[in-house]
Amino acid sequence: QTPESFPPLRNEAAVRVLRGQMKGIQGHCNSCYMDAALFSLFSCTSVLDSMLFMPFPLCDRNVQGILRDEIVNPLRRAGFVRASSVMHLREQLTDKGRCSSFTNAEKDPEEFLNLIMQQVLGIEPLLKLQSGGQKEQDCYCYQIFMDKQEDLVVPDVQQLVERSFLSSDLKLVEIPSCFIIQMPRFGKEYKMFSKIIPSLELDITDLLLDSPRECCLCGDVATLECC
Question: Which InterPro entries match (predicted)?
Fold first, then answer.
């Protein structure tokens, strides 16, 4: 365990600490979904560090301590987290009766995020979405759903998010403080895309509800939107 607090890894430090053998979060008993989610959320960004420190109304301080001291801090300090540390977290989620199979079964990352953010820590939803003028929906992450499109061979995240929102007639009600995106699902037998290029910046202008947009012809504020 590492009692100190370490900042997220950036630039050269990230390469130095995270590259090489025995780096990342060690997998064990179908933990890949949780390992990947935790690495993405905490290794190189501090956006969700409130999960590690703030006493939220429903916050389970024991789970919060395990997440901070046994997983995030060792990852940022040494670039490696033992499988036993992740199993400790999984056991706590199981012991509290929230899900009996968290120690051995593979789960959807969204299920894990909803559990730990909502039920364990009591964090307010990160996203507010609206579909076709219907009632707002609160959620913690957005999973990309879309049909196979032949013109997208090696897409980037920007393209996938825009097309997914368009096909589902979705809009962001407000700018999110953190936008967690789950890529399209795939299995051993089928992969929708062989690879996806990360977008280092994400332009959500066209995804925002009632947001002023620039006309693609004249450059002035647009009054109509082509669908």
Answer: Papain-like_cys_pep_sf, USP_CS
Domains of the chain (ranges, CATH numbers): 11-120 (3.90.70.10), 127-222 (no CATH)
Exposure class string for 180-189: b at 16+ Cβ within 10 A, else e: bbbbbeeeee
Beta-bridge partners for 80:
24
pLDDT tens string 18-69: 999 999 999 999 999 999 999 999 999 999 999 998 887 778 888 999 999 9
Report the distance separating Cα 111 and Cα 58, nearest Å: 18
pTM of the full structure? 0.85
112: nearest Cα among 179, 19, 163, 36: 36
Looking at the DSSP assignment, which residues form a beta bridge with residue 171?
130
Q: Please count the CA atoms within 13 angstroms of the CA of 9 that sit on its side-chain side.
A: 23
Q: What angle do CA 138, 59, 14 make, to 5 degrees?
A: 80
